[in-house]
């Protein structure tokens, strides 16, 4: 916080280069090696752990209310609000291309790690939605749930799905409004990138 500008109030930085590049904003908490290091502005963020919330580049108004707990949590996010990441590498590369991402929740190692476009996702469990690149308003609960990379395909996105269980919808690339509950339910479905929508499977 050595560059802290006038009008920046009630910030708490503790650790090697914590808040090192920060200039403007209020009531941020950064604890850990390089936590909140390069973000020039933002308010009401909490970064606890090494390299957490390190690379923000948005204005104060677009970098607020984020919470990262765990080494490398929300490490690359440039612009976004109200994201919560708990666990090693949770949301690590989220929004690294500069796209604004809001309202995500990732709990568990490397949840929502590579998401580049999409708001309002909830991923709970080790590597849940880890490789999903495009998708919004999904609920994924379980190890490797809804985890397939879906970048590089035109118009492909996973949206408004509920997937609960070990590897459930693990390879789906383009699905919407599916409810999939149970171990490995539709684990291979949609691996060819074709759209899968409005299904209910339990097992």
Task: Write structural notes for this entry.
By secondary structure, the chain is mostly beta strands. It is 0% helix and 22% strand. It has strands at residues 12-14, 29-31, 46-48, 63-64, 67-69, 80-81, 84-86, 105-107, 122-124, 135-136, 139-141, 158-159, 162-164, 175-176, 179-181, 196-197, 200-202. The strands form 4 sheets. Strands 1-2-3-5-7-8-9-11-13-15-17 form an 11-stranded parallel β-sheet, with no helix packed on it. Strands 4-6 form a two-stranded parallel ribbon. It is elongated. The model has no long low-confidence stretch (mean pLDDT 93).
Which features would summarize this protein structure in a list?
0% helix; 11-stranded parallel β-sheet; two-stranded parallel sheet; mainly beta; 203 residues
Describe the structure concisely.
With 203 residues, the protein is mostly beta strands.
Topology:
Layout: E1 12-14, E2 29-31, E3 46-48, E4 63-64, E5 67-69, E6 80-81, E7 84-86, E8 105-107, E9 122-124, E10 135-136, E11 139-141, E12 158-159, E13 162-164, E14 175-176, E15 179-181, E16 196-197, E17 200-202
Helix run count: 0
Q: Structural class from helices and strands?
A: mainly beta
Uncertain runs: none
**Bulk shape:** elongated
Q: Report the mean per-residue pLDDT as an integer.
A: 93
Beta strand count = 17
